[in-house]
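testing teh design pipeline on a random one, pls ignore if ur not involved
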């Protein structure tokens, strides 16, 4: 029935570095030195930011002035997709410090999450710390935890109703954005002080202020301003369509990188035990790339289809990931570290669906 994550006495520790991670770092550094390339502050990234933010603004303005239900539906979906694009590209690189060498620019880009209804402060602990440090470790990586609602790891407890999770879990993904926009981040502020095994300190004065300003701006844009143009029922319906589109897009893309049949799920070590591989090897084996030949997917998801490369080099702008992938794969092949790539989005979704069905069975 799986191991209770609560048995993990301390956060996981990894085996010492080996020549594998040393050589990957050296090869990637050589790539930038030989070509005299910058790791961040790329003109193409600033241009891309203008495009995705412009898409978001135009979708929103069009929605404010939509005159027919069909226009409202199409523009609501467009807004949800554009918001996801801002999250994948701008916010994600900013929060990792991969957007610019200037901290204040990274902060501005990271704060776009607050305008989308989330919190850049809590995201850093949930994603940068808990997820990137303890990838696919039960009870410590919050990104693979659905609580009582589902089971993604073989080391998590099993419940009888999980037999149907391959059917209902897609609905949970669709509701994800709506949850954190309305109550999720408020729960993080007032109730939660841990994400997995990661301690989350209460926000300082400036962070606290940013939190409430972000919430005020988001709800003002989502409800107060639209109500000046449209009835409440229409505004609520458009918000729901946008939020569901955003949630489904984010949920599916994030799951395709770690929760597929081919990735490794680690049982949380207890007491003084360590993970039997170094951190870099664990990142590669607990992660999968997908759709590397699709320029459209790569552009839209901010290089997150090159998730292995992102986990190894989170502070490098995602525009470099397609070029880094062959380097990483070559070193993995040399040292016998499994590097897996799904050729298409469809094959990755099918693998995730099979994992859901398998994790839903009693073991």
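output:
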């Amino acid at each position: 029935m799986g191991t209770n994550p609560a048995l993990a006495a301390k956060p996981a520790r990894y085996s010492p570095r080996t020549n594998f991670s040393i050589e990957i770092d050296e090869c990637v550094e050589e790539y930038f030195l030989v070509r005299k390339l910058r790791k961040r502050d790329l003109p193409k990234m600033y241009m891309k930011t203008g495009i995705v933010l412009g898409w978001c603004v135009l979708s929103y303005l069009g929605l404010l002035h939509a005159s027919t239900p069909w226009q409202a539906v199409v523009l609501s979906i467009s807004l949800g997709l554009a918001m996801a694009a801002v999250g994948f590209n701008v916010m994600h690189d900013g929060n990792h410090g991969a957007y610019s060498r200037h901290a204040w620019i990274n902060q501005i880009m990271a704060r776009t999450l607050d305008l989308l209804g989330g919190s850049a402060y809590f995201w850093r602990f949930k994603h940068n710390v808990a997820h990137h440090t303890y990838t696919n470790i039960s009870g410590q990586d919050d990104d693979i935890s659905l609580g009582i609602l589902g089971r993604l790891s073989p080391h998590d407890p099993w419940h009888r109703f999980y037999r149907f999770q391959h059917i209902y879990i897609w609905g949970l993904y669709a509701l994800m954005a709506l949850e954190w926009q309305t109550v999720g981040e408020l729960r993080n502020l007032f109730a939660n002080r841990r994400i997995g095994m990661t301690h989350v300190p209460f926000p300082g004065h400036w962070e606290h202020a940013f939190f409430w300003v972000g919430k005020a701006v988001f709800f003002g844009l989502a409800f107060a301003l639209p109500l000046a143009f449209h009835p409440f029922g229409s505004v609520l319906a458009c918000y729901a369509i946008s939020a569901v589109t955003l949630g489904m897009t984010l949920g599916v893309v994030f799951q395709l990188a770690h929760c597929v049949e081919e990735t490794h799920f680690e049982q949380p070590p207890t007491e003084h035990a360590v993970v039997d591989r170094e951190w870099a090897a664990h990142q590669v084996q607990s992660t999968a790339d997908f759709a590397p030949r699709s320029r459209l997917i790569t552009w839209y998801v901010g290089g997150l289809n090159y998730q292995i490369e992102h986990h190894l080099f989170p502070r490098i702008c995602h525009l470099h990931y397609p070029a880094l992938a062959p380097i990483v794969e070559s070193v993995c092949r040399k040292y016998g570290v499994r590097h897996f790539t799904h050729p298409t989005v469809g094959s990755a979704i099918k693998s995730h669906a099979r994992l859901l069905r398998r994790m839903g069975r009693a073991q």
